[in-house]
Amino acid sequence: MKRKWWHDKVAYQIYPKSFYDTNADGIGDLRGIIEKLDYLADLGIEILWLSPVYLSPFADQGYDIADYYQIDPRFGTMEDMDELIAEAKKRGISILMDLVVNHCSDEHIWFQKAIADPDGPYGKYFYLEKDDGQLPCNWRSYFGGPCWDRLPGTDRLYLHVFHKKQPDLNWENPEVRNEIYKNINWWLEKGLGGFRIDAIINIKKALPFHDYPADRADGLSSIDNMLEEASGIGVFLQEMRQQTFEKYDAFTVGEVFHSKAEELSSFIGEDGFFSTMFDFRPVCFSSSANGFYDYRPITPEDYKQCIFTSQAEAQEIGFYANVIENHDGPRGASHYLPADGCHDTGKKMLATISLMLRGIPFIYQGQELGMENTVFSSIEDIDDINTLAEYETAKKAGLSDQEALSAVSKYSRDNARTPMQWTNGAQAGFTQGTPWLPVNPNYTAINAASQLADENSVLSYYKKLIALRRDSRYKETLVYGKTVPFLAGQKNLTAFLRQSDQQNILVLANYQSAPQEAALPFKRFRTLLSNYPDTVFDPKKECLTLRSYEAKILLEL
What is the predicted pLDDT for the residue at 257? Predict the structure, then answer.
């Protein structure tokens, strides 16, 4: 593997609207990120991904972009963005922006010109079909309902696999691709370190449009069926890489669903389309084609099998990006930890597993504090369009209003989008105004200010994990070493070796409240890090007793 500048980095995702507000309008802004750069540098972050800050009507929280060359005034100005890039660079932090190019906003000038002249050049920037009284295909959008809507004032329909205000761009048109590449290079010239690439697998459609078997009473079919059939996306992705990222040695992380196992090397191999891609296997485990109401909890054994499968498939190919949570789902502590383990010790254990795996760790804002799911008392509390659609799906399936609310609350994207909990003061120190989304009521107990002063806090533990990964004595093993599952058959024990020519490092995690013993593969060791202050070791049996949700990182001597 060619060694790249990003291999040993730890990345952090900011959801700007909820990070830190400096002008009391209840919305986080770029100046707020600038003010918190020292906090991020102290944590050990060297790559910083911002969810979209482009001009947008915010039908889908900024993932509907009206102008790729402008900063939305709610977040600040282009001067603020330039300052952020410069100030981050001073601290050794590379900035990533979100690259959202499967679709744009219906308020983008391209779409407005398509409305004005569907047969003109901009009509070809989108997927337009004659409205003959029948939908061109029965694909269901990600947010529910058909993927087709009437192009205003015309006899045409346009495709949108997400929200109706997010028309899909026609990647089959080379003019569209060239405009996208032009924009990417414009931002890279500004000094960006790279991009997180949104929903990229959707850019290739299975054409011509056709139906799939209906899978719900609405007569529509999951978009997943189309993605399974679509082929040839590599031509687009290779072209994009060569025309943009490759020229700047940019770091790219793909949001890739539905990739096929045999394609992994094409995506993240030596000369892959991207530097890395998110490992969504644990995220997708709970999902159901029926919707949130039919999701199943993920058990410790399920989680173990997911990560071991991913580690094995990428081991000889490249690096996955390892995530516990992001802006598109629930809080990881609430999702992956059993109820009896959703406490500081359990959160540290989960962090130990994630940051010690081979790959590039991505931390989502507040994860380092152990932020948890919030509380919804009614559907009116929810802002997220996807959750609202899932609520209606649950009700159509026969659930009562309360049952539907309970079902969608567990997985709502709003759980991760509540404001960052900086202090135990008013509005969690996020804003001096009224926050756009209510703060989680537990902010008085979980906040950065209290944890910064506590050597035993979740935040302090994350700092120690990141520092360990960067430590020159262990970096070769923890960054480039193999991941070898250990005692994989032992229930609720997640254990693996990180192995290099220089050393063996063992990671042990007791994923349950009851203690259990774990035999060791070596006789002499030193504890590098643990979420307990001591070690219970029986030298005669050569085993450790791991207490409730105990995690240990051991170096063989």
Answer: 87
Nearest to 290 by CA among 147, 199, 394: 394
Other CB atoms within 10 Å distance of the CB of residue 477 = 21
Q: Which of 198, 279, 414, 550 is catalytic?
A: 198
Q: Which residues pair with 221 in a beta bridge?
A: 139
Distance between CA 2 and CA 303 in Å, rounded? 30
Virtual torsion, Cα 46, 75, 166, 234, nearest 10 deg: -20
Spell out, as residue ranges, where the chain has pLDDT lower than 50. none
Q: For the sheet containing 504-510, what is the strand order? A: 482-485, 493-499, 504-510, 551-556, 525-530
CA–CA distance from 238 to each of 34, 230, 242, 247, 521 (Å)?
34, 16, 6, 13, 44
SS3 track for 239-262 = HHHHHHHHHHCCEEEECCCCCCHH
Q: What is the pLDDT of residue 1?
A: 83
**What distance in Å separates the CA atoms of residue 552 and residue 557, rounded to the nearest whole number?**
15
Q: How many CB atoms within 10 Å of residue 543?
A: 15
CA distance 27 to 437: 9
Question: What is the C-alpha to C-alpha distance for residues 404 and 290, in angstroms, rounded to an integer?
Answer: 13
> What is the dihedral angle through the alpha carbons of 397, 402, 406, 408, rounded to the nearest 10 degrees?
50
Q: Are 497 and 521 in contact (CB under 8 A)?
A: yes
d(CA 362, CA 337) in angstroms, rounded, equals 18
> Positive or negative, the Cα torsion across 49, 509, 539, 499?
negative
- Alpha-carbon distance of 288 to 120, in angstroms, equals 41
Question: What is residue 486's predicted lDDT score, i.e. its pLDDT?
Answer: 98
The closest of 44, 549, 514 to 333, measured between CA atoms, is: 549
Residues with Cβ within 8 Å of residue 358, at least 6 apart in sequence: 311, 314, 315, 319, 320, 479, 480, 481, 482, 483, 498
Question: Which residues 6+ apart lie within 8 Å of 236 measured at CB?
Answer: 171, 177, 203, 204
> Is the distance from CB of 151 to CB of 115 less than 8 angstroms?
yes
* Burial zone of 455 (CB within 10 Å; 0-12 exposed, 13-18 middle, 19+ buried): exposed
Q: Which of 255, 325, 328, 372 is catalytic?
A: 255
CA distance 362 to 50: 12
Residue 516, beta-bridge partner list: 546
198 noted as active-site residue: yes
Catalytic residue status for 255: yes
How close are the terminal C-alpha atoms of the chain, in Å? Answer: 28
Q: Flag whether the pTM goes above 0.90.
A: yes
